[in-house]
């Protein structure tokens, strides 16, 4: 299994037109390891949006509202986003995590549920690869 990688992205024009101390962040409203990593990375920075909607964060980045955290599978070359480093280190920050599809025992025998689970597995595997 290949992990899903999350990185910070922005439009180049946003980065060029905003001094570093005025840049705002769009983050995911999540808990667990993702949330702890994100909290550490964004400590002391201006967060203007926290949500769990990748499309909303992507739209806000496209509108040059701020720097957003997205999984790689949401970002395409035609989006015109650039990866953003938060620190002066040569390597850019990223978080990687495996993704799991979990089903309740009662639902595992439903052909419709199995069809959707199989479809999601194929799509996610294709996006990660």
Largest sheet: 6 strands, mixed
Residue share in β-strands: 15-25%
**Counted beta strands:** 6
Structural class determined from secondary elements: alpha/beta
Alpha carbon gyration radius: 17 Å
N-to-C SSE series? EHEHEHEEEH
Question: Count of helical segments?
Answer: 4
How much helix, percentage-wise, in residues? 25-40%
Distance between the termini: 10 Å
Query: Roughly what is the average pLDDT, rounded to an integer?
Result: 87
Low-confidence stretches: none
Topology record:
Blueprint: E1 4-11, H1 12-17, E2 24-28, H2 32-41, E3 46-51, H3 54-62, E4 67-71, E5 81-83, E6 94-97, H4 111-128
Parallel strand pairs: 2-3, 2-4
Antiparallel strand pairs: 1-4, 1-5, 1-6
Structure, described:
The protein has 129 residues and is an alpha/beta fold. Helix content is 33%, strand content 24%. It has helices spanning 12-17, 32-41, 54-62, 111-128, and strands at 4-11, 24-28, 46-51, 67-71, 81-83, 94-97. Strands 1, 2, 3, 4, 5 and 6 form a 6-stranded mixed sheet that branches. β2 (24-28), α2 and β3 (46-51) form a beta-alpha-beta unit. The relative contact order is 0.23. The mean pLDDT is 87.
Keywords for this structure?
elongated, alpha/beta, 6 strands, about 130 residues
Summarize this, please?
The protein is an alpha/beta fold. The protein has helices at residues 12-17, 32-41, 54-62, 111-128, and strands at residues 4-11, 24-28, 46-51, 67-71, 81-83, 94-97.
């Amino acid at each position: 299994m290949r992990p899903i990688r999350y990185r910070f992205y922005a439009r180049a024009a946003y980065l060029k037109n905003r001094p570093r101390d005025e840049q705002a962040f769009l983050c995911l409203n999540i808990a667990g390891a993702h949330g702890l990593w994100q909290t550490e990375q964004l400590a002391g920075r201006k967060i203007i949006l926290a949500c769990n909607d990748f499309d909303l964060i992507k739209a806000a980045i496209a509108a040059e509202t701020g720097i957003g955290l997205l999984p790689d599978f949401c970002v395409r070359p035609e989006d015109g986003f650039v990866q953003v480093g938060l620190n002066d280190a040569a390597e850019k920050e990223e978080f990687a995590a495996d993704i799991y599809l979990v089903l309740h025992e009662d639902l595992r025998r439903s052909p419709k549920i199995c069809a959707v689970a199989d479809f999601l597995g194929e799509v996610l595997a294709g996006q990660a690869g």
